[in-house]
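Request: Mind sharing a record?
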Amino acid sequence: MTQDTEAFRSRYRAGIHPLYNAWLHGGFVLLYGIACLAFLISTLESVTAWEWLVVPVTLVFFNWGEYAIHKNLGHHKSRIGALFYKRHTGDHHSFFVTGQMHWESAKDWRVILFPAWLILLFSAALFPAWWLLSFLNANLAALVAITLLAGYLGYELFHACEHLPASHPVSRLPWIRHMRRLHELHHRRDLMQSKNFNLVFPLMDWLKGSLHWEPLEEERPVTRMQHHVDIARSPEQVLTYAASATRWPEWHPSSLRVEGEPGPMTAGGHFEEDIHAGGRAGHLSWDVLEYSPGRRWRAKASGTHGLSLVLTYDCEATAGGTRFVRTLDYGFSGLAMQVANWLVMRRRIDRESVESMGRLKEMAERLPDFTPATASSPA
């Protein structure tokens, strides 16, 4: 958490009235809402199948309203939504930032929940609409009102859950976990005005093209492949050659072109690579994480199609030279590519990796005098 966020939280908490009670706040909203729902449900009589159809229609309408109000009033200044903008963008998005999304005490609920009076205002508009619609069809009127009020309570409940600590059991429930991640991405400064405005179900975000998903690194599905080959050269010679990324196209069938410094890439180094792996063309941006001459080389990359990977080379001295071990951990952020990888790509990538080990052995043993100075970028 940055010092600016800490300072804002301190100022905000200091400004909360001493008599504010978070449990009273949340409890009033919940109990009042349940009481209104109970009354409306009591008015239903012999609901027919076609009358029930108004529920999904109203849910879609509520989802659109949630999206529109959140986006247009919560994140864009306007005279009619000035108070909401101040509370939402001004307070809520300053209090909760990426990496610090959970509340720390019950009083922090004040910056999560709507003001308690808002549900009174909401019902003050809802009940006259219900009363008027009831002249046309009492069941339809009640179902519309019930759905809208349940949507309001659902929004409050989900929003509160999306700011629970990650260790809380509720946070680990599948749908809550998914929506927590979408909401955390929405709180990123570069995304909050354009992405992930739905908090309960991202229907309008999907329809409007504003749905944005990035899995956490530790949550990204990973495929691991490990291959080894024995090479009749010393570990220093083998790793010097293998870690010279500009020479990868000489021995790896997936590597088409590499732009970077010649010679073994050391920790902190960066290079770019064009590839054709698993039947798909792509581009990778690499950052070297570790280089221990004759022992280990490790780098990570991100690329097209939502690909991310970590590549590790390990060398171990043997009686005949070196056992070279190549470990590839990779995954895709998108569901379509994850499915494609599982069905087709991983087997192709495995074959290409096996082929690369044979070609590495051939090339490394053919270059007995290889040194970093002789490395050059392929044409």
About this structure: The first strand starts at residue 223 and ends at 231.
